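queue> holo job accepted (2-phosphoglycolic acid)
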Amino acid sequence: MRKKVIAGNWKMNKGRSELELYFSQLNREVNGGLAAACDRLDVICATPYTLMSRAHDISSVLGVAIAAQNVHWENQGAFTGEVSVPMLLECGIHWTLVGHSERRQYFAESDLTVEKKVSIALKSGLKVIACVGETLRERESDQTGEVVARQVDAILSGAEGHSADLTLAYEPVWAIGTGLAATAAQAQEVHELIRELVGKRAGPSCASSIRILYGGSMNSANVSELLSKPDIDGGLIGGASLKPKEFATLINVALG
Ligand code: PGA
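queue> job finished
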């Protein structure tokens, strides 16, 4: 039985003054409180770098893990504007996103940089949520399988020997921030394909244990149906994670 994951991606939103209220409201709205919920599933918030330390101080007692939204593939050096794995670990951060489509689209993230980031992060003991997903143009020209396979392949190359700490997220680019989520059937089809790809490359036990999250306009209206699918193990949630009440609903549904 795979433990579910509900991960919020705050992107470039929120400030320090909002943190206490956010986590106390979230704690209040989650059935039985966050600490009990976090015994049964992983609740993660990927905050901006500037909020991570403070958010970690507040949320770690509640069982919520704080994640980075990106990380560099070198430990140190002349990389202006970047943050490395040891820097995250030093702040008590044990999770990071890698390869989000906004990083791929706006910051020239490639399959190669994703592979390098996944590799250093996992080797250094960080847990990784690595993202894949096709654009609308790719879906409309029947390239979804090919694109996702290429992206998953790069991630698995980086994860070789360390896949226990790897979580994948299928995030169709056309569904992110658009309010147009994939249907549960569309998402399940791609999740099943991803699990098959993992099986071919990393073996059946890795395929059955790896968690694959859905992301792209997941909200309180569609979460139940999405999470009812056999290969969907949770969500990576942008907009709906910014509102504690809405995010709590997703956690409550995942708790069952
Ligand atoms: P969204 O974002 O839930 O706002 O669509 C998801 C993501 O980008 O991870």
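queue> The chain is about 45% helix and 15% strand.
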